[in-house]
Specification:
Blueprint: H1 2-12, H2 16-23, H3 27-39, E1 46-50, H4 56-65, E2 70-75, H5 78-89, E3 97-101, E4 114-120, H6 129-139, E5 140-151, H7 157-177, H8 181-185, H9 187-193, H10 197-206, E6 211-217, E7 222-228
Parallel strand pairs: 1-2, 1-4, 2-3, 4-5
Antiparallel strand pairs: 5-7, 6-7
Helix pairs in contact: 3-4
The chain binds the ligand C/C(=C\Cc1cc(O)c2ccccc2c1O)CCC[C@H](C)CCC[C@H](C)CCCC(C)C and S-adenosylmethionine (SAM).
S-adenosylmethionine binds near residues 52, 53, 77 and 125.
Amino acid sequence: MNQEIRDIFDRVAPVYDQLNNWLSLGQHSIWKEMTVKWSAAQPGNTCLDLCCGSGDLAFRLARRVGTRGRVYGVDFSPKLLAVAQARAQSHYPQPAISWLEADALDLPFDANYFDAATMGYGLRNVMDIPRSLAELHRVLKPGAKAAILDFHRPRNQQMRAFQQWYLSSIVVPLAQQLGLKKEYAYISPSLDRFPTGEEQVGLARQVGFTWVTHYPIANDMMGVLVVSK
Ligand SMILES: C/C(=C\Cc1cc(O)c2ccccc2c1O)CCC[C@H](C)CCC[C@H](C)CCCC(C)C
Ligand SMILES: C[S@@+](CC[C@H](N)C(=O)[O-])C[C@H]1O[C@@H](n2cnc3c(N)ncnc32)[C@H](O)[C@@H]1O
């Protein structure tokens, strides 16, 4: 099953950034900027971007931590990591980012290593959400924060209906034009299974995070879970 998820992201890699820009009308950049702000990353920090994909959040973290800091971008899709690396090559000056192919459920870092972390659209895709949160808790320093951005099911029924319509009638047909119907059709059922913001707060507390909150954004269609160790 891990392999199936990795294959989905390897297949979407060539069009991933372009489709996110088109389908969110550029809004995903704003959601990612808010996520990095809520991670409270500071100049000189060592930061983690979990499930980094093509690196949007990692690049934003790198700007925040500056030349004295370091960012680790971790993902298990070699094709998306290659896109991230190619993007990094075209940056001047080169961002202080190390790209690592690894599983979010078994991170290759010592305990208490990171000052801050982000995760964008990764938590909904991991096979074991509590274990992923527990790994994140393990690698953060005491007091460090992480901000986790993902889709959310709006509590307002009209917004939920709009979200479902947008995913099935705009996102999937456009992806179908690019031969990626099955890959984008996966978003909707994965969102149906995904814990609500309130449930995510409970899961984060269970693995030991001391301060936890969930911010609904984009009319509750997206959310950011912010946790502190
Ligand atoms: C950056 C975004 C999604 C990343 C993403 C997450 C996944 O789990 C995937 C799974 C399989 C294939 C691709 C992805 C994937 O790209 C969020 C923005 C992109 C969305 C496709 C757009 C969704 C828009 C909202 C439902 C409604 C937005 C309304 C308005 C236009 C702002
Ligand atoms: C939708 S993409 C998000 C990419 C990026 N964070 C962003 O916001 O654009 C989800 C990413 O999670 C990665 N992923 C899913 N499960 C993973 C796991 N168990 N370990 C590492 N990466 C994983 C996928 O390979 C993919 O790159």
